[in-house]
Amino acid sequence: MALYGDRMTFEQTVLGIVAKASDDDNNNSNNNKEHEAIETTYVKAPRVLYWDPENNIVIQQDAGTKSTHLKEFISTHTLNPKLVKQIGSSLGEFIARLHLYGLRHRSELYPEKMANKEALSLSRLILYDQFLTASSKYMADQPQSDRDVIELASQWGGDRLVNEPETLVHGDFWPGNFLIDTTTGEEDELTINHMYIVDWEMSRYGPAAMDLGQFMAEAYSLNKYRQPCEELMACFLETYCKISGDRLTTMDLKTAVIHCGGHLMSWTPYTGWFKKDDDQDAKAKEITLIGAEYIKRAMSEDWAWVRQETAFRVMVDHLKL
């Protein structure tokens, strides 16, 4: 599927939504009004400086001369636990605020402004429609019943993606789209200036939990292949659950775990996590089977396993399952 040119229309639209929500909240003097800001102390969206709708060109605010994306940052820096927790909590707060804002303002944003049906079709194509390719390549020696579950999950997740316009989502929420700018303080300790969330062209109304699943899959890979950062995942989900409160359901958990597992199966083996001379095929099979296990357990709603074996234990505990 070719990329569609007007995706940039959705990017500049949603960047305007985030900016207006945060700016209006900061300027609001009515203390009784519910806080609407999407941005947090550290996590922002860049402001649009120029928009050319005829040529689909967006010029955005710079993230800082020394900024780098979070995947690279975590891969190349030794991080202190305080910083890891701060990053996870800040990202969880931002995406929870975005999802809540989308719920509150659904009538004005959907479908008129943020349907983005092309993004839904593209997301299904590049993730859920790839489950069978992954299973046929690396699960041929697994029980047929396991492969059948993967096929069912492919259809279940794809249908949920395109048919459940739940709330406003980022649509490509992974560390490569988080530009972090830091300062070196006392004793060479790194502190955050800000993180800019970029690449909003896939933003649309869809299931909120799929943003969680994508982030958790990439954070899992950082923890497994780069350096230990389990607190990144835990703090992300703890903050998200705290802000979301009783809005979260078992369906959200199921969706997030399946999306995470599918990402591990369909993307992780092919996006540079292991070197070509590192027995790449064996590593690809290993992570595919890990992702498949996530999917199988979520499809059967085996929350005891999810709690015992994955960072999604935070959501399991929040839901008291």
From TrEMBL:
One protein family per Pfam: APH
Aminoglycoside phosphotransferase domain span: 78-216
Protein name: Carboxy-terminal domain (CTD) phosphatase
UniProt organism field: Mortierella alpina (Oleaginous fungus)
